[in-house]
Structure formats: C-alpha cells, structure tokens
TrEMBL record:
Belongs to the universal stress protein A family. This is Universal stress protein. InterPro entries: Rossmann-like_a/b/a_fold (IPR014729), Universal_stress_UspA (IPR006015), UspA (IPR006016). Residues 1-145 form the UspA domain. Transmembrane segments: none annotated.
Length: 145
C-alpha cells in the first residue's frame, strides 16, 4: 500500500515520535523511508547584507547545514535497529513548500510528521509547517502528536 514514505524532521521531540511511527509502518509495509530536513533561509534583513557580513554570513550558513546533518544523523541512528531501506536528505528553503515539493516530485505515498515542532507554543494543536503541509500535500498526511 505504501511504497515510499516521507518523514520531515526538525530536531523536535514530536518529529522524533513521528520518525519512530514512520519506521514501524515502513517495516510493516517494506517501504522506502526518507528522513527529510529543510534548512530555512536566513531572514531577508540578514540576507540583504550578505556581502557586508562576508565570512560571518557563510559561517552561519555552514553551521545551519551542520545542524541539519546532526538532526538527520541522530534520527538515522535511533532507527538503525529497524534495518530499513532508509535515506536521509536535506535541502534549503521554506519547510512546508519543500516538504510538499519533495512529496510531489518523489511521488511519495504518505507523509508522516509531528503536530508541533521546535516552535511549540501552548494552546495550538498544529504548527505552521504541519498546517500548511496538510493543506497542500499531494498525498495523505499522518500527523503524530
Ligand atoms: N525545517 C523543517 N524540516 C523538516 N520538517 C519540519 C521542519 N519544521 C517542521 N517540520 C515538521 O513539521 C512538524 C510540525 O512543526 P511546526 O509546524 O514547525 O510546529 P511548531 O510551530 O511547533 O514549530 C515537525 O514535527 C516536523 O515533522
Ligand atoms: Mg517549527
């Protein structure tokens, strides 16, 4: 039923829960699992001064890329014992847009993600990324809370 599954992660507790749930489903369906991280671009008021900021700007970018790799590697290690057909992938961009793009272009069968992420504020069931993905995804979305 599910051949390709996409699990977007941001390093949060709920994304880790979603990854665990995705791994169990992938095991059951013998599916390919992609753990996906989107590195958000620096805000426009910083972006504008790329030239003037020079090395500092590039160090921040490098650090953000490193951070993304660490998030992905942590999840990969946590799921290693499932022995899955698993891939990790990261891209730069708007998280919700890139998650939907990856799902569409990679022809995924399902997205499994957390209801909230790192920016959790009490009182809201869903974060902005999960909200937008539910509305724009080309495939079913399973929200783990
Ligand atoms: N930058 C990101 N890259 C990949 N997945 C993300 C990213 N940000 C959020 N997600 C996914 O969306 C879920 C919900 O997060 P989000 O909507 O950002 O909530 P919050 O507002 O609480 O941070 C996360 O559990 C994770 O699965
Ligand atoms: Mg967030």
């Amino acid at each position: 039923m599910y051949r390709k599954m996409l699990v977007p992660v941001d390093g949060s507790h709920r994304a880790a829960l979603a990854a665990e749930h995705g791994a169990q489903l992938a095991k059951h369906f013998k599916a390919h699992l992609t753990i996906f991280h989107v590195i958000p671009p620096l805000p426009p008021y910083v972006n504008k001064y790329e030239d003037r900021l020079g090395e500092v700007y590039h160090n921040i970018e490098k650090q953000m890329e490193e951070n993304g790799k660490e998030i992905l590697n942590r999840v990969k290690e946590e799921l290693a014992h499932y022995g899955l057909d698993l891939e990790v992938k990261s891209v730069w961009g708007n998280p919700a847009e890139e998650i939907c793009r990856e799902a569409r272009e990679g022809r995924y069968d399902i997205i499994i993600m957390g209801s909230r992420g790192l920016g959790e504020i009490r009182g809201y069931l869903m974060g902005s990324v999960s909200n937008r993905v539910v509305r724009h995804a080309p495939c079913p979305v399973l929200i783990v809370r």
